[in-house]
Amino acid sequence: MIKSFQQMISASGSYAPELKLSLLLSIIASTTQGIIFALFFPLFSALMSSPIDIPRVWTLVALMAFLVIIEFLIRWRELEFGWIITIDAASEMRLKLGEQLRKMPLEELSRRRSGDLNVILSGNVTDSLLSIGTIASIIIKTMVVPTIVIIVTFFIDWRLATVMLLTFPLAVPFYRWQKAITSKATRDVAIADANTASRIIEYAQGMPVLRATQQVGQQSQRLHQAINEQRQIQTQATSLGTAPAILMSTIVEIGIIFIIALSTLLVLQSSISIPQVFALAVVATRFSEPIAIFGELTAVFNLMKAALERIEALMAIKPLPVNTTPTTLSKFDITFENVDFAYADQKESILNNISFHLPEKSLTALVGSSGSGKTTITRLISRFADVKSGSIKIGGADIRDVEPVELMKHISVVFQDVYLFDDTILNNIRLAKPNATDAEVETAARAANCHEFVSRLPNGYNTKVGEIGGALSGGERQRISIARAILKDAPIVILDEPTSALDTESEVAVQAAIDKLVENKTVVVIAHRLSTVIGADKILVLEAGQIIESGNHEELLSQNRRYAMLWNAQQQSRRWKITA
User: Are 125 and 98 in contact (CB under 8 A)?
Assistant: First the structure.
């Protein structure tokens, strides 16, 4: 129980003082409620006296009415505090999670499914915080009210109080049993929720492809399977906690039956009065109800705990370390020295003993089959993750000694899959340089061959591009991405072959924009079409995480090895045509 309070206070962040005040108000309100029920004993005695003690009855009724009003006002303020804390603490936690996403290694972030992140940022925050105010109040009530009832009963007859007191230790094993068997089930529910969310997002985003390939039905089956698994796990989690909860309530009810039986016996023995028995019958219900409710809250506690565990696991991911005296960059040649890299949860290395040097203002192409390590190299240059061993240097400085913000200030990346925000074209380009003027944005757009198609749009640069840039064609999105990089004007440019998925007309426009982007830059390009990198200063051929060839186009062709084989294959594919 103490741990539950600690978790709630910890989860409330900077609003912990307000939560503590809310708990204090709950204690006062619950104590007031306990006193109200205690007054039933003298009230029934006054009502059943002969003659009826009218002045005492009215005094007690007035006192009880006053205490009810006091409790109402305190509860009102307590619930108001609780909901304010809930809303503000949830907002604060989401901001902290957003800050964590900003700091955590990009490689770690890119490997997480969008559905999983969505569940953590929305559902888990809601589960962990939305009920804090009300749950805290219920916990206090289940502790304070029964305690006061037992204390009052003790003054009536110690034997009745003992029977009440024994109900607690008899109910505790069933509570622990329920908590133990439902804890894992609740975590399984959280995993199933994340999986279903990912399937739904995948299904919705992939609908154009699914319809084009007539696979809507098959993918729908996968979605239905995820939803059915989610339902089964949720049903199982609910069923597991049912028996312990019912048994716990039964124990409490049996305790009440013993109390009534014992009080009847005590009346026959003239140990207590009939008015006290009537009062005890009323008060006993307030003793049993909170305990039964507490058993039903076990599932809520487990849900809150599972949600907090997932949030804490995300928050526990440490940002990439930076030297206490960070270095600034002034030169922009790139050196890999004996670099090995593997993902944290995998033993097999993605890169093995990679070493090369790329002079400043040179163009280097990375060539190789899928999975050979090309993308990993570009991501390590941007420090999406840290190397397992070896080092990566820019201008002679180890990038681990450079602040991430300082590092990315000097690197522009043009991805194959362009991400545009649901905002205007102007703001999507300006993302690279927030203080850029409209004229600077337009200059960059002209250099990237964007201005012509933007001018044709109804709202020009103020046209919204839609979610993920869906209102624009692939070539238009690429050119906006290149305009963004041109505006940034970073000395290092990384290109993930932005023309590989474009039609001929778009490719020509994008290639012209790239030519302007890479002038006087240190350029690293992932090449899928070898014809685009014939003029590269250096071509690195990768296979299974190792560099197997290095040289310019002519040198590699003369070696007649892997690069020459790839070149010949692409040349033959260019002669391919459809025949009737």
Answer: no
DSSP state of 399: G
Query: pLDDT for 147-183, tens place per residue?
Result: 887 887 787 778 777 877 777 777 777 777 777 777 6
Match domain 350-410+520-574 to its CATH number in 3.30.200.20, 3.90.45.10, 3.40.50.300, 1.20.272.10: 3.40.50.300
Beta carbons within 10 angstroms of residue 519's beta carbon = 11
Domain boundaries, the chain: 2-315, 350-410+520-574
Query: Which residue from 271, 314, 358 is spatially nearest to 113, judged by alpha carbons?
Result: 314
459 band by pLDDT with thresholds 50, 70 and 90: confident
Which CATH architecture is the domain 2-315 placed in?
Answer: Up-down Bundle (1.20)
Residues 211, 205: Cα–Cα separation, whole Å = 12
Residue length, the chain?
Answer: 580
Query: From residue 50, how far is each of 40, 47, 76, 275 by CA, in Å?
Result: 18, 8, 40, 12
Q: Give dist(CA 451, CA 459) in Å, integer.
A: 13
- Is this prediction's pTM over 0.70? no
Strands 363-368 and 411-414: unpaired
In whole angstroms, give the CA distance from residue 322 to residue 399: 9
b (16+ CB within 10 A) / e for 167-193:
bbeebeebbebbbebbbebbbbbbebb
